[in-house]
Design brief:
The structure is a homodimer. Chain A has 15 helices and 23 strands. By secondary structure, chain A is of the alpha+beta class. The N terminus of chain A is likely disordered.
């Protein structure tokens, strides 16, 4: 079949050209389509359904920890963006500016939000008066715009979808606890629902968010040995509060500045799960967020009773809470097998006349390719268990990949050697804390400081570049 | 209490100044807050939760009728917007233009989408090849921007949230059926879940969507006798398909143009339900979309067992699927009563030591103010029934308001007379179909043609302005 051949030949091998393999997947699995505006994607039904599943689970986790959803405007007046000095310096170079409304030139130009700290601050200054108003634990789901020069679907685009949490607290301790809580939620979400192992840590000064006191992040190692920053949580202290005059009357009626945080994850997570789990036949989706968890393929569908049985199974599983697609189109079973493999559907069920006669169906796991007959009677109990096993298995595979590429290094040349011998990955090494050494390591090895994970004494206690006493232990890696 | 007084005195009476009453409600009930950009609102947790409930129900209705969600970019290149002549003429005067990305002037300016027909058409031209690809039934939830001169929260804002469905079909009949199906879904949603009676009809030529062959709409009469266009469904024929070259190979392998539709409802619906159901004490929310359906207020909360019992009731109702808020703050019960009345919570439950001793609680309906003791044993059965009754009652009240203000007229002066005697409302009258008469009626009476609901023979069969043979029966009304 022409179509089947196309599916099989169209994907570049992951080990031949990882970047092209990625591009092939996002288009051939029908996640996205390009548009006339560089870096702005049409996200197709299958891609958007993944994002909706991510949203649903995360949203429940946010609500369970007391957060409320709101919606701020998409425009920020230039004067508002400029109120916090570091913040505007960080973002102004990469924003899109609206200068005309209808035919009229605007008296003050508006940027399309690259992030919404300034808007939340303006709002908090209006609505926070008393300690009784605190904490404010707000979140919004929206898209933001950053005018990037080079773009890649999901990983770096000019418009991208995300959630941004913005919270205000009475004390620094409360705000720090929130920053840590949300980092933990991101790590739990990534590991439990995306089956993607992550490392939690703090960003160095050079890499922290514009306006933050401290930025925490989760980092995940992709199949090619590069690191992906998959979520960030920022502690602001009272810097924004002072710039925006956000004050509350405490119990003694004294005015105090609030302490703030912000935190976000984006559609970048979709890029992360592609590069963590995908293989040469296409996507491999975590069962928790797969739009289709089970694809049912009738075999010899024209034979009496086959389609009826397939529909019955689909109904039963749907009622049991499994996301099912019965493909009763007139494409061949072989074409369908390749199609749902490409789309990363965790489990396939084949059902034909002989299976029905035996009260069974054949199942095929996307992750292991393992085929196993299943009794039709036990499907609603069996399938959720198999899906759970698939999730555990792909998590473990990703963890093994990371463990095999996790190097403890004493000098920066150890990094170069480990990457050359065993492939790119994470190099754990101590660091003196100077920006010069950080840059030098990156120039020499290609690996930047991804995350501070210790106090400088995990290894030799000496900086891997200059040999002086270390302050931090850092994981070094090439990064997306 | 200072706060209580403030709540009671701050709302302008609905009959004194309807516009000010509306503004008071949207701010005092904490639905929105203004920002530094005119016409762009911060939608607060309580307002956004209403929209999320609307989204959830409508989204399920869309999915049940085979629609899929996608996400198109927020930017439209000027050249793309210009591809369909009528469309660009309709929208270009009111769009916001991005002219700078970072520091660089763009070679082609981008408008922030006022609606996304052009983007969907560009996408459909890429992905539709064969009759097997049809229909495409896509929808997206997003915000759009129209640079309006005068703005009012929810009713007319520069940025507003909505859903926009965009579909492509093999035949005109299929597309027309879709246009009608979605109009029916909007009407069903408005009446069943917003408890807002609507009239379905077609827009006149002067009022139809830019680029449409026909525009259908649902119209709802607000408390003040003005009509609100609450949702629209457009049939495009193959006009966009020809402009954007969207063709498919039919079963004989001949290229055909697709036929298209689009349809949308927005946060305007929130404005509609405020002006349909609200009263001088604040919002009255339809139970189906109320963020809080039942507010539980402990009385003499310091007495032993009161808070425990209140929590037990809250848990029981939550488990039964009721959206409950237990207010155990130290505000007085009277303050809380006023607060949840302002916020339009459909049902209040008061529980104190005496109630507990008697195995009862007191309930108070927001719509009728009726107080009724309820047995604690039967709450999970009783409360959903009461909520349903409230929904029916507010629907009937709105329908009575509309019936009392629905006039059958023979001439345009009948409209002026009816509005003067009995108040603004809907005037049903026949019309010859000429744009001159349509304008003349509006100038003479203030009432525009809201909807074509008949073939010109509902009344005298003569145009209410010129007296010539009528082609259409129209409802005439002042409008938002």
């Amino acid at each position: 079949m022409a179509n089947q051949k196309k599916l099989v030949t169209a994907i570049t091998s992951r080990d031949t050209d990882f970047a092209q393999w990625y591009t092939d997947i996002v288009t051939k699995a029908e996640l996205v389509s390009y548009t006339g505006v560089k870096g702005c994607l049409a996200i197709r039904p299958y891609g958007w359904a993944i994002w909706e599943n991510i949203q649903r689970i995360l949203n429940d986790m946010f609500k369970a920890t007391g957060h409320e959803n709101v919606s701020m405007p998409m425009f920020i007046p230039e004067g508002l963006l400029q109120k916090e000095k570091d913040h505007v310096e960080g973002f102004a170079p990469e924003v899109a500016w609206v200068t005309l409304g209808g035919a009229e030139e605007l008296t003050e130009r508006l940027c399309v939000r690259p992030t919404s700290e300034t808007l939340f601050c303006e709002h908090y200054a209006q609505i926070i008066k008393s300690h009784r108003d605190l904490p404010k634990l707000y979140n919004q789901w929206c898209s933001v715009v950053r005018w990037e020069k080079t773009t890649r679907p999901f990983l770096r685009s000019r418009e991208f979808h995300w959630q941004e949490g913005h919270t205000a607290h009475a004390t620094a301790d409360d705000a720090i606890a929130e920053t840590e809580r949300m980092l933990d939620i991101y790590a739990e979400f990534a590991e439990k629902y995306l089956n993607m192992p992550v490392i939690k840590g703090r960003k160095t000064e050079s890499d922290k968010f514009a306006g933050a006191v401290a930025t925490y992040a989760i980092e995940a190692l992709m199949h090619d040995g590069k690191s992906l920053q998959a979520g960030t949580s920022h502690y602001f202290g009272d810097g924004f509060a002072r710039a925006f005059e956000i004050q509350y009357a405490d119990k003694n009626n004294t005015l105090q500045y609030v302490h703030q945080t912000s935190w976000g994850v984006s559609t970048r997570l979709i890029g992360g799960l592609i590069m963590t789990h995908g293989d040469d036949d296409g996507l491999v989706l975590p069962p928790a967020i797969a739009p289709i968890q089970v694809a049912i393929i009738p075999v010899q569908a024209q034979k009496e009773g086959v389609l009826d049985k397939a529909r019955e199974i689909a109904d039963t599983l749907t009622k049991a809470g499994v996301r099912v697609k019965l493909d009763d189109s007139d494409n061949s079973p072989g074409w369908k097998f390749a199609e749902y493999e490409m789309k990363g559907v965790p489990l396939r069920i084949e059902i034909g006349p002989r299976d029905i006669a035996e009260g069974k169906c054949m199942s095929a796991r996307r992750d292991t390719r393992e085929k196993q007959p299943l009794s039709l009677d036990g499907l609603t109990a069996e399938i959720p268990q198999i899906l759970e096993k698939i999730g555990h298995n792909i998590y473990n595979k990703a963890l093994e990949n990371r463990s095999a590429r996790y190097y403890t290094v004493e000098t920066e040349s150890d990094i170069t050697k480990a990457f050359a011998d065993k492939g790119d990955g994470y190099a754990e090494g101590d660091w003196c804390g100077s920006e010069e050494c950080e840059k030098a390591v990156k120039e020499a090895t290609g690996a930047g400081s991804r995350s501070i994970i210790g106090d400088g004494h995990n290894g030799t206690g000496k900086c891997i570049h200059c040999g002086k006493t270390a302050k931090h232990t850092v994981i070094w890696a090439k990064a997306y």
